[in-house]
Design goal:
five-stranded antiparallel beta sheet, four-stranded antiparallel beta sheet, 302 residues, 11 helices, Arc Repressor Mutant, subunit A, single chain, alpha+beta
Length: 302
């Protein structure tokens, strides 16, 4: 049990939700993702392997997928109900450790499907031609709030299932209120904002060195690194899952010139934005990219 205010620091968001056939390119492969994936197998089967341990989920069973790494192999006829979401402490640490793949009969936890179906229906109805990632989709504020209202109901059912499986939320140290102010500001800022360390320190009532030290102690990364990571993750997903041009994405992220954005991205990922968007690059960049298309149906990808 934690203070009520500490739970307010938890970050959560829906990445995608769908029901249908698995995208052919995702039927078999190795994947790395810091987000949670939960699949209700409707048809066929999927074999999941992490380390030396393998499990198989068949029709009528849930699979809670291991974080961060696993090998997946779907049958050619597989169809799933899928929710992919993030749920972390500041700094990116998972709230619940999911180090192994877990399979169980859906009949044992009917509350999971009851909580999942409204999310899937809402997304399918309002984003029928969308790519995988909701963050890049245009929508009204009321629709955004409807999605945000449904997601906690799913997370509550998922947490109850995790407790049933013997997994409780991970406990972290007490969170400094000044760090929480900085985190809140970094999460609220548009991605095109120019990072201003002195401004953040002033909001926290701290000097820059003291702010950086407290922030690293609480999250494991500096405020600048936290901000850069947020921008990089947005760049990766926009490149892979939208029709936006490289120039448009760079402008959204605060780069006045496409060349500056390309240089920044190449430094971070070892490949140009164009290569990432087109599916090229090194083995390492391809592995990073796989986490943006895992288990998707054809209609949710290019």
């Amino acid at each position: 049990m934690r203070r009520y205010g500490d739970w307010g620091a938890v970050r959560y968001g829906l990445v995608w939700a769908y029901e249908g056939a698995v995208w052919p390119a995702s039927i078999k492969g190795d994947y790395t993702s810091r987000d949670y994936s939960c699949w209700l197998v409707r048809r066929g089967r999927v074999k999941l392997t992490t380390g030396r341990r393998s499990v198989v989920a068949r029709a009528g069973q849930w699979a809670f997928v291991a974080v961060p790494e696993r090998h997946q192999e779907f049958s050619a006829d597989a169809e799933i109900l899928s929710l992919h979401f993030h749920f972390t402490w500041p700094g990116g640490e998972p709230v619940v450790e999911q180090s192994r793949n877990v399979v169980f009969d859906a009949a044992e936890r009917p509350d999971l499907e009851r909580a999942a179906r409204p999310v899937v229906r809402l997304v399918g109805k309002n984003f029928p031609g969308a790519h995988a990632f909701l963050s890049a989709q245009m929508c009204t504020l009321p629709l955004y709030l409807r999605v945000q209202n449904l997601l906690p109901r799913w997370i509550e059912a998922w947490l109850e299932a995790q407790a049933w499986l013997g997994n409780e939320p991970r406990r972290l140290g007490e969170l400094d209120e000044r760090v929480l102010r900085v985190l809140g500001e970094l999460d609220r800022r548009p991605l095109g904002w120019r990072f201003a360390e002195q401004e953040l320190a002033g909001l926290a009532g701290l000097g820059r060195s003291q702010m950086n030290a407290l922030f690293v102690r609480a999250t494991g990364v500096s405020p600048r690194r936290y901000w850069e990571r947020r921008r990089l993750e947005a760049a990766e997903r926009l490149l892979k899952n939208t029709e936006m041009s490289v120039k448009e994405i760079g402008l959204d992220l605060g780069f006045r010139y496409e060349s500056h954005f390309s240089q920044w991205f190449r430094t971070q990922r070892g490949a140009s934005p164009s290569a990432w968007k087109g599916g090229g690059g090194t083995t390492e960049t391809r592995r990073h990219r796989e986490q943006t298309t895992e288990g998707l149906p054809t209609k949710y990808t290019k």
